[in-house]
Amino acid sequence: VMSILLHGDAAFAGQGVVYETFHLSDLPSYTTNGTIHVVVNNQIGFTTDPRMARSSPYPTDVARVVNAPIFHVNADDPEAVMYVCNVAAEWRNTFNKDVVVDLVCYRRRGHNEMDEPMFTQPLMYKQIHKQVPVLKKYADKLIADGTVTLQEFEEEIAKYDRICEEAYTRSKDKKILHIKHWLDSPWPGFFNGDGEPKSMSCPPTGISEEMLTHIGNVASSVPVEDFKIHSGLSRILKARSEMTKNRSVDWALAEYMAFGSVLKEGIHVRLSGQDVERGTF
After folding, report:
1. What family is it from (predicted)?
2. Which CATH architecture has domain 3-131?
3. 12, 47, 75, 146: which could join 105 in a potential S-S bond, CB 3.0 to 4.6 Å?
4. Residues 178, 90: Cα–Cα separation, whole Å
5. Taking the domains of the chain in order of start, what are their residue ranges?
6. Order of strands across the sheet that contains 3-8
7. Cα separation of 182 and 174, whole Å?
8. What is the pTM of this model?
9. What are residue 36's DSSP bridge partners?
10. How far apart are CA 1 and CA 134, in angstroms?
11. What are the beta bridge partners of residue 101?
């Protein structure tokens, strides 16, 4: 049995639990006799330049606290990755200590469907769009070397797609989801029959529709005249303006309205963290 942990670069550097468990790694009563940490390092975490996210050059520097060997490897070179993973497994097996594999790679698309990295990382993403995907790069090399034929490669891809498609089809036959046991409320006496908590009263926090419309309009406009904005952003702003007109809101506009109403009351709002600059959520 071997413990393997998979991390993202931002999480590895930024989440305290990583540092804490490194400190458990060699305690007599807690050790797992070495964990292999694989860091999928796309070099921007969610959205942030590394220099804005941590104080050290590498996200993996936190592992130096237990002198774990750290292998930085180019994820575009699968054979180098395999070599490094074998060395890591051997290290762990021989010395029963933690070891880190830092897969230096990139993320081709945004963090989620709503996310457009070109807004905040235009130079990096211009480079990424030119990158040949690693599967194609390696397949071309193997075919050129005569290790596999084009037909073998295509059959392998088709086989993999088929496995995924069949699993997806089977998943639709599942009629019962066994989630009741963790949806159960642990506080049966906490709510009244109408779903309201028993002894909690809330002051009214509503605001006028006029105010909501005002905030919606401000949130969908550009504050500077003749300022050229990214076409993707102008689409988003236009959609937001339409929503305000049609008296409908999505999550992002609801957040704007919440922040805006608090600001209108003269209360200072400060947002910090990786996703606020381009509003991923």
Report:
1. Belongs to the alpha-ketoglutarate dehydrogenase family.
2. 3-Layer(aba) Sandwich (3.40)
3. 75
4. 40
5. 3-131, 132-168, 209-265
6. 3-8, 35-41, 99-104, 70-74
7. 19
8. 0.69
9. 4, 99
10. 30
11. 38, 71
Residue-wise pLDDT tens for the chain (281 aa)? 899 999 999 999 999 999 999 999 998 888 899 999 999 999 988 778 888 888 999 999 999 999 999 999 999 999 999 999 999 999 999 999 999 999 999 999 887 777 888 888 899 999 999 999 999 999 999 999 999 999 999 999 999 999 999 999 998 887 776 665 566 666 666 666 665 556 666 678 889 999 999 999 999 999 888 898 888 889 999 999 999 999 999 988 999 999 999 999 999 987 776 667 666 55
Neighbours of 252 (CB within 10 A): 16
How far is 130 from 139, CA to CA, in rounded Å?
A: 18
Which two tokens mark 259? 């922040």
Length of the chain equals: 281
For strand 35-41 and strand 99-104, is the pairing parallel, antiparallel, or unpaired?
parallel
222/57 Cα distance (integer angstroms) = 36
CA distances from residue 129 to 2, 98, 125, 132 in whole angstroms, order as listed: 37, 35, 6, 8
Cα–Cα distance measured from residue 228 to residue 213, given in angstroms and rounded to the nearest whole number: 25
3-state secondary structure the chain: CCEEEEEEHHHHHHCHHHHHHHHHCCCCCCCCCCEEEEEEECCCCCCCCHHHHCCCCCHHHHHHHHCCCEEEEECCCHHHHHHHHHHHHHHHHHHCCCEEEEEECCCCCCCCCCCCHHHCCHHHHHHHHHCCCHHHHHHHHHHHHCCCCHHHHHHHHHHHHHHHHHHHHHHCCCCCCCCHHHHCCCCCCCECCCCCECCCCCCCCCCCHHHHHHHHHHHCCCCCCCCCCCHHHHHHHHHHHHHHHCCCCCHHHHHHHHHHHHHHCCCCCCCCCCCCCCCCC
Query: In this structure, are residues 263 and 215 in contact, taking their beta carbons and an 8 Å threshold?
Result: no
